[in-house]
Amino acid sequence: MPSTVIKHMRYNPETEVLVITFVTGKVYAYQPVPADTYARMLQAFSKGQFFNRFIRDQFRYRQLDN
Fold first, then answer.
1. Does the N-terminal peptide bond of residue 13 adopt cis geometry, omega within 30 degrees of 0?
2. What is the pTM of this model?
């Protein structure tokens, strides 16, 4: 299902970095996100709800340039 909050995600399993582009255009990198957490996010019905519950405020993050 398309997300109303998340536009795009990419994940690097070697560095455990999850990069999320939000519909607002802001881009954030989260780490260290375990591969199983990313896999669960891909399967989640609501990516936004999963993000809010299991990613946001759980991992270090930094804003990237657009």
1. no
2. 0.91
